[in-house]
Amino acid sequence: MHQVDSGAEMEVFGSDVQRGWLKLQKANVMVRSIHFCSVLMQLAVGLEDDGQGRVELYHVETLELVVSWARPKPVWAVCLSPDGSHLAAAGYDCSLALYDACSHVHLTQVTYRAERGPAFVWSLAFSSNGKMLAVGCWNGSTHVYRLNKSRHNWRRAKLALVQRGLLMNTQARNHAATEERTGAGMEERTPHLTLVTTISRGDRIYSVDLDASGQNLLIGGRDRKVALYDCAAAVDGADLRASQLDLASLDKAPTSTMLWEVDSDDFVYAVSLSNNLRYATYAGTGQHVYVLDGRTGGRICVIPCKGTVWSVRLYEHFVAFGGEFTYVGVYNIEANRPEIYVPTVGSVYGVAFSSDLIGFSSGRTACTFGKGGNIFASWKDQPSYETVVGFLRVMMSNGEGDEQQLGQIMQLLLDRHPALANVCHLETQTSLLEHVIRKTNNAQVITALLNAECLVGLQPNKRNLSPLQVSVLLCKWRALRLLLDALLSSRITLSRGVMQMLSNSFELLATRDPVAFLQLIAKTELQPEPEIFSSSDTHDILLPDTQIRGSNRFCPKGLWDKDLRQYTFREFLPAGDRDEDSVVEGSFIGATDLREGTFVQRAYGRNSVVAHPSKPPRRNSATTFGVKRRPSAALEVAAIREESPAAFPVAWSVRS
């Protein structure tokens, strides 16, 4: 059983677009950043819109735009808190904006001053516990803030869960609704962000990331270095002062300690740190993604890329990356091999990554691959037919140079999901193999489909045309050769329907490409078909030469009965002894099986007897048979010398 039209889907987000793959926004809009919250299934997008900026928040399941905030300058960094309650945005306006993602209220804004350079912000990162927020600034400073979440914010997030049906406890739902209606639980206003520590570097800081606790900070930038800092003392001090409500001392930022530092070959545009500090990655203009040990900074592996890398994201032992090349890659660090490549349109400036979803900016759109949950498939599941067709369309539109990349992308997909070789469109019944032959005729993709770890079925479309017939009609000779080679190497399932389809294709194939037809007939291996014989025992019949018979039936049972009857042992018996009790049960013994001085004895059946010759048979003697005993007579079969290779004489003697 193969999935027909279900699987992981590709979705496109944008306020000015319709649903569908490759639908673009207006020409002056570029997506610069993207972030995903798996708890509330929300996607945040940062845009550059005709010199200004905009932040948009979407529901991933419904693809609906929830809210949009205008910004004075392009937004190069957006980040949702892990629980989905807050959204941080920053960019070329040299400031950090914090929003309530549930009530859509602009909570606070922090403006930075130009020191060593302009105070642009390219990177934001929340810790996994949702308490810390790191900001990387072009002025050479990294700021770590403590997020002060009031009960009001938590109540908003809880109400959003109720509205989406994710909070199933009745008492919790009623309590959240009551708090929202009455305004209960409001606290005195406290600062939304508290500065914990500030780390200064020698040049622009392009990217930052935090571990799960927010106590370890990874920094990379223009100084061509990657450094890990221990901020535990500063974080603990901020927590202690906050618990004692010493608000006057909250502006004091304790220093942090650098744990290790690694030199890079070029500018570092992106860094990522795993939650458990197991891995640290960085990339940039060096056209490689470097994976390090998060605790020591030792290099683990290097992933080559085809251009500058703008974004990297770690999740467990996978790293996703994108940049100035036409795909988003996911690499398995433990297995040290690529996991999947997702084709893109244009450069990728931001990547969002989770266990279920791969999100990325693709030129003027934000796209997601997979959703997860009980209803939607994740990026690890088999993609749908439409998604794979979209991959093919994107890669072919990117130019001839991507045809080899297309073969690699399809090979990775088929290694993970061999059943893709047999998927077809639900309405037109067009198989993926037929689509590739029609639209691309890419030899690498066709070879990958035919060499999948499953037998390939040549499914006909609604017009009852198989991929083999389509390749002949459209003069796709390269695809035809590959299909015929797969047929000869038993890579195609030989079911009754496929055999009938091949028979129907012979006339067309012989007319359009007689050389290929003759090669197919000459190289096709004849398969044993014992079911074409009748129910009688035929394994002891000796044929004097090759017998050829033909039929247009699928299983011509009984076709050989008339011809084989003349070669049965019964025909050698005298006319009076040919009855049902005189059935010979024996087997042929060639001359090479005999040895001088050895009596050959072979009989079958409980009532079989063998008459031995008076002396050992000669080396060229042919055989000895056992014959079923009749009630009135016993048959003795003596082996004699074979006189002619064309006939096999046997001497019979009947004794009463």
Question: What does it look like?
Answer:
- Among the domains are: 113-148 and 191-263, YVTN repeat-like/Quinoprotein amine dehydrogenase (Methylamine Dehydrogenase, Chain H); 403-523, Serine Threonine Protein Phosphatase 5, Tetratricopeptide repeat.
- Helices cover 20% and strands 29% of the residues.
- It is elongated and about 105 Å long.
- The chain has 656 residues and is of the alpha+beta class.
- Strands 1-28-27-26 form a 4-stranded antiparallel beta sheet, with no helix packed on it. Strands 2-3-4-5 form a 4-stranded antiparallel beta sheet, with no helix packed on it. Strands 6-7-8-9 form a 4-stranded antiparallel beta sheet, with no helix packed on it.
- The longest helix has 17 residues, at 496-512.
- It has 12 helices and 32 strands.
- α7 packs parallel to α9.
- Mean pLDDT is 76; it is low at 15-25, 180-189, 245-251, 571-575 and 577-656.
- A hairpin with a 5-residue loop joins β20 (288-293) and β21 (299-304).
Task: Quote the beta fraction.
Answer: 25-35%
Task: Report the structural category.
Answer: alpha+beta
- Which strand order does the major sheet show? 1-28-27-26
Number of strands: 32
Low-confidence stretches: 15-25, 180-189, 245-251, 571-575, 577-656
The global form is elongated
Largest sheet: 4 strands, antiparallel
Identify the CATH architecture of the domain at 403-523: Alpha Horseshoe
InterPro entries: WD40/YVTN_repeat-like_dom_sf, WD40_repeat_dom_sf, WD40_rpt
Concise synopsis of the structure shown:
20% of the residues lie in helices and 29% in strands. With 656 residues, it is an alpha+beta fold. InterPro entries: WD40/YVTN_repeat-like_dom_sf (IPR015943), WD40_repeat_dom_sf (IPR036322), WD40_rpt (IPR001680).
